[in-house]
Amino acid sequence: MFFRISGPLLALLCAGGVASAAPRVVVSIGPVHSLVAGVMQGVGTPDLLVEGGGSPHDQAMRPSRARALQDAALIVWVGPTLEQFLDKPIRSLGRDARLITLMEMPGITLLTTRDGLYASGRKNTVNPHIWLSPDNAIAIAAIVADALGELDAANAAVYRRNAAATARRIDTLAAEIEFRLGAVKARPYMVLHDAYRYFDQRFGMNVVGAIMATPEQKPGARRLLEIRRRIVSQHVVCVFGEPRESTALLESVAAGTATRIGMLDPLVVNLPAGPDAYFGMMRGIATALVDCLAS
Q1: Which residues are CB-contacts of 261 (< 8 A; sequence separation ≥ 6)?
Q2: What is the tens place of the pLDDT at every residue in 189-208?
Q3: Same structural domain for residues 215 and 89?
Q4: Is CB count within 10 Å lower at the N or C end of the chain?
Q5: Same structural domain for residues 170 and 234?
Q6: How many domains are there within the chain?
Q7: Domain CATH code at residue 260
Q8: Mean pLDDT, rounded, for 251-274
Q9: Under 8 Å between Cβ of 100 and 143
Q10: Main-chain dihedrals φ then ψ at residue 293, nearest 5 degrees
């Protein structure tokens, strides 16, 4: 039997969210998830694949994650350069799910990994850490809002408003970080690996080296010696690791020098997932830089 729903009852159902439930959205990593959560605020909550601040470089595809991908109406990831564990599962998906590969989207600025940052090595590949650019973060919110609006026309205006509000928050955040870093941006420092080029370029920071070429490639004895020489010759103030990594490597290269050790978190490791996580991460990076470089 077929019943036609109309008039006040239809309006009541729509107001209660029954008629326009949000599509299921799956996002790969914490910082991007935070931006997507901001766009969806008031409508729904995206699923996060790499939970608990895990690294996209060393994940395994668990059955629960595979099911989430299969059930998703929209999947948002950076791309296979970063989330290698997702490459094969995503390629095996059917045509029903919509996929946003952020590194391939118009409006996203791509930078290469810096030549010579890893000792004397040369690594001219695209740097996948795109979310650390405030301009890219604004673009990500707009891209997701457009995609969601096509999938869920009933809430398209909400997604657009949320993306615009996120953009305003990011502009305010960037101005705040610019001000806070003004006194330390010229001071030389090193990072664990070149995850921060987008941040460094936007705020004019003085990074003079990276301890590892990539998270998967640990430096050998010759590289460590070259890095130590650079620390001394460049008068490096701080070397920065990341929360999930041991400090032993940092302590080794800084031993016997005045160089201090700090921590930068590009993956919201110690922050609860949600719309505020991106902003906490960016402020956390700025705070860690100021605390170590200004001491």
Answers
A1: 238, 239, 240, 241, 247, 250, 251, 254, 292
A2: 999 888 999 999 999 999 99
A3: no
A4: N
A5: no
A6: 2
A7: 3.40.50.1980
A8: 91
A9: yes
A10: -75, -25
